[in-house]
Specification:
alpha/beta; seven-stranded mixed beta sheet; two-stranded parallel ribbon; 8 helices; 9 strands; globular
């Protein structure tokens, strides 16, 4: 059965590397929402056939609302999102989302992030784990503490009033991505998330944290590593320095 092409003002960017257990489920979950969202999968040369699954769905069911960017090799989360952002800006989307493939972000929260930008007038909506306590399900305690204190540390060093600075579940209004100089974004891993938010904040965009429940991945393997934290730790100091020295674009 062919779905009719649905237009949408929103694109959900999902970076993948070996997500064959999750990718079809997450795509179907997003398309089952009442609001129509388009999806762009950015696949970093997954050897497990993730891209083939997406292409099958594009051809058979979701033509015109599901898209894929294929990149060779593991080039990193930050560059995947930036490639996705540039693609989204070349098309006509007004709202651009970041989301993980592994169901740690609940697709049912997408309309809430959308509403914050589309109805409430915010420029950036962040699905936040910490805005009302710690909303994390089945994470090892060490990981929860590490992430929680990482966010606290970022707030301390940068003076940036966002609780969940490393969250990767968000909605940007188009103009935010048009204004942020994407080619000047330095970081690739977790610090990419911090840098994007910090830059939006320094430019003067209005940011809202929307409380979400974050569920640790059920399928596949976690992508966390010590190097990511090293980058985040020292990266934050560089952002603070940038905050003092760099000329940010004007809205």
């Amino acid at each position: 059965m062919h779905h009719h092409m649905k237009n949408s003002d929103s694109i959900v960017i999902i970076p993948t590397y070996n997500e064959k257990e999750n990718i079809e489920k997450i795509i179907r979950a997003i398309y089952s929402l009442e609001k129509s969202f388009h999806i762009l999968v950015v696949d970093d040369g997954s050897p497990d056939g993730t891209a083939a699954i997406v292409k099958g769905l594009m051809a058979n069911e979701f033509e015109g609302q599901l898209f894929i960017l294929e990149r060779s090799g593991k080039l990193g989360l930050g560059t995947a999102y930036i490639a996705g952002f540039k693609w989204a800006l070349e098309h006509t989307y007004d709202y651009i989302f970041e989301m993980d493939a592994d169901f740690s972000h609940d697709p049912n929260d997408l309309p809430r992030l959308y509403a914050a930008c589309a109805d409430e007038g915010y420029d950036l909506a962040i699905g936040s784990r910490y805005v009302s306590g710690v909303n994390v399900v089945n994470w090892p305690m060490g990981r929860v503490l590490m992430s929680y204190f990482a966010s606290k540390y970022v707030r301390f060093v940068t003076g940036f009033k966002v609780h969940d600075t490393t969250a990767g579940f968000k909605c940007y209004k188009r103009r935010v991505l048009q204004t942020i100089e994407l080619d000047k974004i330095r970081f690739k891993g977790y610090a990419f998330q911090i840098e994007m938010k910090f830059t939006a904040y320094k430019i003067g965009f209005k940011i809202k944290e929307v409380p979400v429940i974050f569920v640790n991945r059920q399928e596949g393997t976690s992508k966390m590593s010590g190097g990511i934290f090293g980058e985040a730790f020292f990266g934050v100091m560089r952002l603070r320095w940038d905050g003092w020295t760099r000329k940010y674009p004007k809205i």
